[in-house]
Every structure is written in C-alpha cells, then in structure tokens.
C-alpha cells in the first residue's frame, strides 16, 4: 500500500504492560499532512520503555499514513534528518475532535441481522434445553443417590493493585529517571517486582499483579 510521511502532534499517550521491553502505547494524535486538512486519529504502537520519554504530550512526531485509509497511521521511530528537523521546528495546532477518523465497522443493517440471528439462536437453545429436561428428569431422580460426591479446591493467590500520581507543572512520569524511581516505590509497596500489568501516564503510574501467575506471564519492573 502507498504511504506518505507527515508530522503529527501528540495529544495524549498511555502506556500499558507487555511481556518484553517493548510495551503497547495508546496514542491520540493530530496528523497534519501537507496535502489535506489535519485530522484526529487514535493508534496503538509498541514502543521500547527507554524511548517512551521521547514521546511527550504536545510534542511533534513523524508518522506515516495511508491516503486511502487515513486511520492507518504508524509512528516513524527513526525519521530522516530532514523530517527530524521539520519535527523540531514545527508547531502543530490540535485538530477538533469532530475530525476523528476511525476504521469503519459494521453497518446498521449488519448489526440488525446479527441481533436477530442471536435472538433466534437463543430461543432455539431454550426450547432444546426444556425438552431435554422433560425427558431426563426421571433419570436424574433415580440416579442422584448413586452419584459419587466430588470436591474441588482452588489454590489461593494474592492479587494486588496500587498506583501513585504526581503533581506540579514540571512533574512527569515519562522522564526515565522519575519513571524508574516511581516504579521502585510501587515495588516496595507490594513487595515484589513481578507484575502482570503496568500503566504509565504522564502523571500517574499503576501496577497490578497476581502471585499465582507463572514467571512467563509476568513482567519485571526493570525500567
């Protein structure tokens, strides 16, 4: 597919957890192509934790987009020197929320057909279950006394969620040193560095964990 390069204003970003150093980040962007009006778009990119401080709200990034499908946008992590210079010098205004473009979903007619099909399938299932109960109720009564009892047990686990926020005009958790310091504080609160989810925003960090998870299903707080 044909792609074009453009500048984009980072309106907001939200980093979540991942199983490696590259974590998924939700971006809200204003894309400003050279040959069409600016527009809003929401995307998800995998960014290395070390590179997250580079992407700040209200800063400018270099992106690639598809003219025929403008919701298909990708951040260029290693732009050419010319585009890097343009990004440093540019000041992009935020586009209105009304310009948001999204990938088309199901049409209204398709949704109606799906709802109707689901309703009919549910009604048929109820009828089948009711008929089955009528034929099997006698057998259930006679065999209930012969069924062996079964017990089940579940292993206990400890789940936790904790978060912290910062305030002040110069405070930002997207600065790597501050990010590492905050992660260490949260680790001390919960008593472990193995977590199942990390949420990093400009002024808020949250971690979640479950002691029953295997090491391969957790991420270590080494920022």
Automatic annotation (TrEMBL):
- Where in this protein does the record put region Disordered? 138-172
Q: Where along the chain is composition biased (Low complexity)?
A: 145-172
- Top-level lineage group: Bacteria
TM ranges are 111-130
Q: Which UniProt keywords apply?
A: Membrane, Transmembrane, Transmembrane helix
Q: What is this protein called?
A: Uncharacterized protein
